[in-house]
Amino acid sequence: MLGTMKDTQLATKLHRSRDEVRRERVRRGIPGNRKPLSPEAALPPEQRHQLRRERIAAAKCGKKRPRHVIEAMRKAVKASCIQWRYGRGCPRLTVLAAQDRRRLADCGLSTRTTWFVVCQ
Q1: What's the CA angle centered on 75, arms 78 and 93, to 5 degrees?
Q2: Taking the CA atoms of the chain, what radius of gyration do you get in angstroms?
Q3: Residue-wise pLDDT tens for the chain (120 aa)?
Q4: Which of 19, 25, 57, 116 is most deeply buried (CB count within 10 A of its CB)?
Q5: Is residue 62 in some structural domain?
Q6: Is residue 120 in some structural domain?
Q7: Number of structural domains the chain divides into
Q8: Largest CA-CA distance found in the chain, in angstroms, rounded
């Protein structure tokens, strides 16, 4: 029975301590029980990565993006459109940055410590 199950399981079956079972298993030279390897472990890394991506995509299927992610995407698109239209150092961007700072201040937050916050 040594090596066929975890030491803790065998110890409870035999009414012994886990250390006693482990010592006996090591004394006899029996390797510890290990989980069997998954069939994916034998695959090359490219196939493993592809299977992982498929599992993740299947888990996401039919679920909406969280609201904070949608807001961040909108903000990024808005900023990139304004930068494309007006250039980097334009007054419009300065006004938008000031509005963002004011919105954060209304929430009682500092712009130095807050990366991204959407006020409700």
Answers
A1: 55
A2: 29
A3: 888 888 899 999 999 999 999 999 999 998 888 878 888 889 999 999 999 999 988 888 888 888 888 888 888 777 666 555 555 556 666 677 777 777 777 766 665 554 444 444
A4: 25
A5: no
A6: no
A7: 2
A8: 79
For every residue of the chain, DSSP letters joined together read: -TTTS-HHHHHHHHT--HHHHHHHHHHHTPPPP-PPPPGGGGS-HHHHHHHHHHHHHHHHTT-PPPHHHHHHHHHHHHHHHHHHHH-TT-HHHHHHHHHHHHHHHHTT--TTT-S-----
Q: Which amino acid is at 66?
A: P
Cβ–Cβ < 8 Å for 6, 33: yes
Q: Is 58 within the bounds of a domain?
A: no
Evaluate whether residue 116 is within a structural domain.
Answer: no
Q: How far is CA 33 from CA 5, 26, 36, 88, in A?
A: 6, 12, 9, 62
Domain span at residue 73 reads: 67-106
State the pLDDT at residue 44.
Answer: 94
